[in-house]
């Protein structure tokens, strides 16, 4: 089992603690993504694949708006949590376990829109791994299809290579929750340690470890153009309201 699978398997039941209100976040992020879909000519008839669905943060919100969504992830723990939350939200989503570097091994059909949100692609720790992922994703898109993904603003982050990310502090009914990350750099890769501190009746600290590669926007743009996309544009938080830069790529 890879470090990425282990990370998300262990984090799955606590992933919603990274949000002040996960349920509200599903609705807010769905609104942002649907605006992107609609501005590119897609409506409720679009067939959508969320190929890094995690616990369903984006796919559940979009399905709740009447879109046809399939979802996949490499983590069986995240998929189990996503299935439970989809049922709680009364939405029908077909979930499958899949590595987005090999989508054709699992999916026979092609999709109008494929998503990979929340910094999923930087789990590819080498340029060749990233190329394999993008090639797999674009191959699974219909002609004139759309790829929508978000990554951290690594172009800015790499200028300083910070050792931690600012904490999120959320008030709860029983106290407060603090979530933060530490980063240990080795060239362009970094080991991430996610801490979740619950300060309620008793103090509880959870710790999860993973690894990322700081992926520059130009690299991703170049690979998308190389493997079949004719138009690639980046949208930034001040335009979309999403907390990370979003790439929108159109397949020829």
Please sum up the structure shown.
This protein is an alpha/beta fold.
Q: What is the total domain count?
A: 2
Order of helices and strands: HHEHEHEEHEHEEEEHEHE
The count of helical stretches stands at: 8
Radius of gyration: 18 Å
Q: Quote the CATH topology of the largest domain.
A: Rossmann fold
Largest sheet: 7 strands, mixed
- CATH architecture group name of the largest domain: 3-Layer(aba) Sandwich
User: Residue-averaged pLDDT, rounded?
Assistant: 97
Distance between the termini: 36 Å
CATH class of the largest domain: Alpha Beta
What structural category characterises the helix and strand content?
alpha/beta
Instruction: For the largest sheet, list the strands in their spatial order.
Output: 3-2-1-4-5-11-10
The CATH superfamily of the largest domain is: Vaccinia Virus protein VP39
Strand content: 25-35%
Low-pLDDT stretches are none
**Morphology:** globular
| Residues in helices, as a percent range | 25-40%
Describe the protein.
By secondary structure, the protein is of the alpha/beta class. It folds into two domains: 3-153 and 215-251, Rossmann fold; 156-212. The chain is built from eight helices and eleven strands. The chain has helices spanning 3-11, 22-39, 57-63, 76-88, 127-139, 154-157, 217-226, 237-240; strands at 47-50, 68-73, 94-97, 111-116, 141-150, 164-172, 175-186, 189-199, 203-213, 229-235, 246-251. A seven-stranded mixed sheet has the order 3-2-1-4-5-11-10, sandwiched between helices. α2 (22-39) crosses α3 (57-63). The protein is globular. The termini are far apart. The relative contact order is 0.15. The model has no long low-confidence stretch (mean pLDDT 97).
């Amino acid at each position: 089992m890879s470090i990425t699978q282990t990370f998300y398997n262990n984090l799955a039941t606590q992933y919603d603690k990274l949000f002040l209100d996960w349920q509200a976040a599903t609705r807010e992020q769905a609104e942002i993504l649907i605006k992107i879909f609609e501005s590119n000519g897609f409506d409720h008839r679009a067939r959508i694949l969320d190929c890094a669905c995690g616990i369903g943060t984006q796919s559940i919100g979009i399905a709740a708006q009447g879109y046809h969504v399939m979802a996949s992830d490499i983590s069986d723990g995240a998929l189990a949590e996503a299935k439970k939350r989809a049922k709680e939200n009364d939405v029908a989503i077909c979930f499958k376990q899949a590595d987005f570097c090999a989508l054709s091994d699992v999916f026979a059909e092609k999709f109008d829109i494929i998503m990979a949100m929340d910094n999923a692609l930087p789990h590819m720790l080498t340029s060749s791994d990233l190329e394999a992922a993008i090639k797999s994703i674009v191959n699974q898109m219909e002609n004139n299809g759309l790829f929508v993904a978000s990554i951290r603003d690594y172009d800015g982050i790499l200028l300083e290579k910070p050792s931690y990310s600012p904490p999120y502090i959320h008030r709860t009914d029983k106290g407060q929750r603090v979530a933060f990350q530490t980063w240990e750099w080795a060239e362009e890769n970094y080991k991430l340690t996610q801490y979740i501190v619950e300060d309620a009746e008793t103090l509880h600290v959870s710790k999860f470890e993973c690894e990322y590669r700081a992926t520059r926007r130009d690299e991703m743009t170049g690979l998308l153009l190389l493997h079949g996309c004719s138009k690639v544009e980046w949208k930034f938080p001040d335009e979309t309201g999403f907390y990370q830069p979003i790439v929108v790529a159109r397949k020829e």
